[in-house]
Amino acid sequence: MTIQWFPGHMTRAKRQIEEKLKLIDVVFELLDARIPQSSRNPMVDEITASKPRLVLLNKADLADPALTAEWSSYFRAKGLATHVIDANAGTGVKELASKAKELLQEKIQRQVDKGMKPRPVRALIVGIPNVGKSTLINRLAGRNIAITGDRPGVTKGQQWIRFGGELELLDTPGILWPKFDDPIAGFRLAATGAIKEEVLHIDEVACFVLKVLVENYGSVLKDRYGLEGLPAELPDMQAAIDVLESIGKRRGCIVSGGHVDFEKAATLLLRDLRSGKLGRMTLESPDNA
Ligand code: G4P
Fold this sequence. Notes:
Keywords: Cytoplasm, GTP-binding, Nucleotide-binding. The chain is of the alpha/beta class.
């Protein structure tokens, strides 16, 4: 889903989430494990402050496992409960009920002490577009349901999806806006496909990705595209363009006159990255968060 965010939309999104928060016990904040910092809404702490929150590092199947472990520690050190999932395959999803209950342990205990039978924990998924909210809701529902996140009169017509006997999920997620003011976050969001056909040019996004690959996943470009003798880092844009040109040549992305079609080469690289064909990789580290 591509949404053009303007100040008015942000205010409305914030208000809609605040309405939904009145109905739930716990927030599931969904992040992309490949870009946990860049896929975080800048105001999520403030918007969801009234409820306990579980950070979910989704798309873990595409992310570098060592860095996912580092990011989990990073969020835990900030006092945020964190859990790693792959909503597509369902890995880690069945533990959500017990993770949510852990966050509400004291409240549940108080109910038990009063002789009450605790009702299922009610949860809301929030996150920026394309982070996997619909996939997770469908996974928990056990079927494909039409997800609409932006309807007027938000508390009307919403349904609870039951997962086991202990968790209920609001069927409309809270859609938050991504980071706009940090250009590097913009490149990371574009690289993973979280923002599409927007301001960033695909060649530039590909060059950004190549810089990360050369510096952190050196052997991938050799293994996938047969590129030999790459430097340990790409000092400038021209160096990245040279690597993109080599990929274009290796993959036959050529236009008339024998020149490399950079846009085609960039599209191919980004498709390979997003589909996991380059291997599991994470585009940012907690060291520079
Ligand atoms: P949203 O509601 O937050 O906007 O996201 P949505 O569920 O639509 O998911 C966006 C894309 O991410 C979908 O791919 C979905 O299959 C994929 N996805 C979600 N969770 C996971 C996961 O854990 N692992 C992997 N590998 N992919 C996941 P898509 O339909 O192909 O859309 P697109 O890639 O063309 O945008």
